[in-house]
Each structure stands twice: as structure tokens, then as C-alpha cells.
Amino acid sequence: MKQDLLDRIQNRSAKIGIVGLGYVGLPLMLRFSEVGFHVLGFDIDASKVEALNAGRSYIEHISSGAVKEALERNFEATTDFSRASEADTLILCVPTPLNKYREPDLSFVLDTTDSLVPYLRAGQVVSLESTTYPGTTDEELKPRIESRGFTVGKDIFLVFSPEREDPGNPNFTTRTIPKVVGGDTPACQEVGAALYGAVIDRVVPVTSTRAAEMTKLLENIHRAVNIGLVNELKIVAEKMNIDIFEVIRAAATKPFGFVPYYPGPGLGGHCIPIDPFYLTWKAREYGVHTRFIELAGEVNSSMPEWVVGKVAGALNDAKRSINGSKVLVLGIAYKKNVDDMRESPSVILMEKLRDLGAAVQYSDPHIPVFPKMREHSFDLSSVSLTPESIASFDCVLLATDHERFDYELIKKHAKLIVDSRGKYQDRSANIVRA
Of 93, 188, 271, 395, which residue is the catalytic one? Predict the structure, then answer.
């Protein structure tokens, strides 16, 4: 069973099933397609499936041309999960958010697994890529798979391999980012390493699915804690009339022992604001209180409130109140040069300003219309930046520093700029750091 699957992976005759065709699943599909595998993509969103089968991409940094090429080669998308039996591999790339109590919400992972289980067959490999707490793969997925009478490691192979996508980063591709792989058994590890080794330049094996799950959490907790540190230092530096961005740039000249992290209006994206709390939640089961992680989370979560306070103070100095002021938020993606809005602090800023009575609009060249979101609602379109439009606002809040913004134009015509990204290094009268 194992050798047959390994042979099919090696000779590219294995059919690759990818479940969840978003920021993780879609690039992975393109990579498997590129090297010659037939790829079957699954998604519950019929509009996404329809778009892909028509050769249209719905992610900015993935071109429709690339999707069309994959279609012509060897790709199709479907909402029919019963076709899972056709695939030799099932790679799960679905969301793992938090619920309103900041606890892990595994509903997407578990519902997806439950939808696939009736159609599993011997000789398949199931790989989970969704970030989660250590133990999810063997505690949640394995029993569901074995409920069909399969033995993991003999009939079916179970793997955890955390995604490492960085949307919009031109320096790294799916192929070049090393892939951590942990198997439930040595046979699972061997199959998982072969699967990803067929499309990724470097596979990094670890001894278990739990080690792989913890690896992903460590990567993101490392970033969250260090961003929390510089966000706290930003407030201290401001009280001392010190430019924290100048300090970070100076410290970054040290060729060893220092990695620069930069403060901002809060954490965004699908990983850093969420993943640390997966470990915090699981650690309680072992009687451990993760104080360091939770403190960083508190600091980072408080940043939107700090930024809104800076807006209020800046408007007050201009003899204006937030209530009734026109505020333009620059950038609503969670980071620059992408169209990804997941957990974007810009949206939190917009809601807080709106709740205080501001007339809020936004400008983002990557997001022409504010999308429908589960927890946030704005009926807005992106404002074109002209001298007239910029000057019509009482305050311009720089939340996401896209390279496509004309910062000199904004500086010249804005009555007031609140800069939460340190983009403006000068001390102009109309610029306030946040």
C-alpha cells in the first residue's frame, strides 16, 4: 500500500486533492499542477469553484493567467466532496479562527474532515496544513479516519505540514519555502516527505505531527511576542520624545543578535493574531499558564485603541472632535501590497472611529470595494486619492503602508495625517505619529 502510493507520487500519476482554495490552497494547487500532477480542488464556496473553472483568480497576487494554465494542464475545481475518493492525497487548507471567547474554533477542520471521511479509501494520504494546537491531528483527525476501519500508517497515511505562505512577498514562493512535515507513524512520515518533496525544494522532517504543530505555533508566537515588545516600546519612546522607528533602524545595523520588528496599529493576518492563543488554550490542559504569550496578546490587542486615541488627540489639537469629523483610513489590508483583509486592524480602527461618530471612508488600491465579512460591515468603496479628495478630510489615518500610495501627494494636501506605520520620517506640522 505504502510503496504503491510512493511510486505514484514519484512518477506523478497520483491525483492530488486540495481542500480549501484560498490563500494557502490555491498556490499549492498551482505548484502541484506546474510539476505535472493532476489536481482536484475542493471548496464549499460555489462562487470560487465557478471562478476557477472559468480561469479567474480571486486573489490579487495570483494571476488569472496562472489559473488558466493549470486548467489547460491538469486542474479542476469542485464542490462535490464525494469525489474525494478519486484523489490519492487530500491536503486540508481550511481556516482555524478563534471564537468570541478567544478559544480555538476547529469547526472548519472537523466539518471538512467529517465531510471527507465517508469517501476515504485505502492508499490515500491525508495532510492537515491548517495552523492548530499540538494534538489536533492525532486527537481529532486520526479517530475520525480510523472510524472507517482503516489503520493509520498501514491503510491510510496521516500527516501534519503547516502552511508557510507569505502573500505578496516576491522573495519566496511555495516552491522555495522549506516545508516542515510530521507523520503520525514512520510510514506516514515517509509518505508525507515524498509528497511535499515532489514540489518543494526542501522538506524538513520532524518526529511527529505534534512537533510539526508546535513548530508552526513557535514561528508565529515568536513574531507576536516581538511585535508586542516594540509596540510597548513605541509608547515608552513617545513619552520620552524619542522616534522608535529611528531607534529600530539604528539597532538593526548590529550584524548579530538583533532582528528588527516594527510597531503598528495592531496585528493582522490569518496567523499572528490568532495562533498564539491556540497554544495558550491547549496549555491549560497541562496546568500551564502562558503569561508571556498572553501579555504580548494584550499589548497587541490594545494598539487600535492607542491609535484612535492619537487620532482624537490630533483632532482636538486642531480644535475638532472625532464626532462629526471626516476620517480617511489609508489601507485596509492587514499588511502592505496585498488584498488580504483577514484580521486586519484597519477594520477595527474603522469601527472604533465610526462608533465615536466619525464619518469614515477608506482608500486601498488593492481592495476597490469593502467585502462582505462575517463580523464587520461597511457599505463603502475605495476613495481615489486626488488633491481635492485628500483635502476634503479632517484627518487621514495611515493604517497600511501600501507602496502604491503617493505619500508626497498625501502629505502636501492632507490637513492632518496620523501615521501608525512610521512612513513619514520628518516632523511636519500636519503629521502625528501613532
Answer: 271
Q: What single-letter amino acid sits at 237?
A: A
173 burial type by CB count under 10 A (0-12 exposed, 13-18 middle, 19+ buried): middle
Q: What is the mean pLDDT of the chain?
A: 94
Confirm whether 188 is a catalytic residue: no
Instruction: Report the DSSP beta bridge partners of residue 395.
Output: 327
Task: Work out the burial of residue 171: count CB atoms within 10 Å of its CB; fewer than 13 is exposed, 13-18 middle, 19 or more buried.
Answer: exposed
Tell me: pLDDT of 376 over 90. no
Residue 290 neighbours by CB distance under 10 Å? 18
In this predicted structure, the answer to whether residue 37 has a pLDDT above a threshold of 90 is yes
Residue spans of the domains in the chain: they are: 2-213, 222-434
The percentage of the chain sitting over the pLDDT mark of 70, rounded to a whole number, equals: 100
Instruction: Say which CATH architecture domain 2-213 belongs to.
Output: 3-Layer(aba) Sandwich (3.40)
In which band, very low, low, confident or very high, does the pLDDT at 89 lie, cut at 50, 70 and 90? very high
Q: Specify the CATH superfamily of domain 222-434.
A: NAD(P)-binding Rossmann-like Domain (3.40.50.720)
DSSP code of 119? G
Identical topology for domains 2-213 and 222-434: yes
In this prediction, residue 346 has a pLDDT band, given cuts at 50, 70 and 90, of: very high
Q: Which has the closest alpha carbon to 195: 23, 22, 31, 24? A: 31
pLDDT per residue as tens digits for the range 402-426: 999 999 999 999 999 999 999 998 8
Rounded to whole angstroms, the Cα distance separating 139 from 113 reads 13
Q: How far is CA 92 from CA 32, 110, 122, 211, in A?
A: 14, 10, 18, 18
Cell numbers found for residue 96: 482555524
Residue carrying C-alpha cell 500500500: 1
What would the mean pLDDT of 44-72 be, rounded to a whole number? 96
Lowest-confidence pick of 195-199, 268-272, 326-330, 393-397: 268-272
pLDDT for position 192: 98
The answer to whether the Cα torsion of 142, 143, 145, 148 is positive or negative is positive
DSSP string for residues in 16-85: EEEE--STTHHHHHHHHHHTT-EEEEE-S-HHHHHHHHTT---STTS-HHHHHHHHHHTEEEES-GGGGG
First to last CA, the chain: 59
Please give the Cα distance from 157 to 85 (Å, whole number). 14
CA angle 82, 88, 89 (to 5 degrees): 90
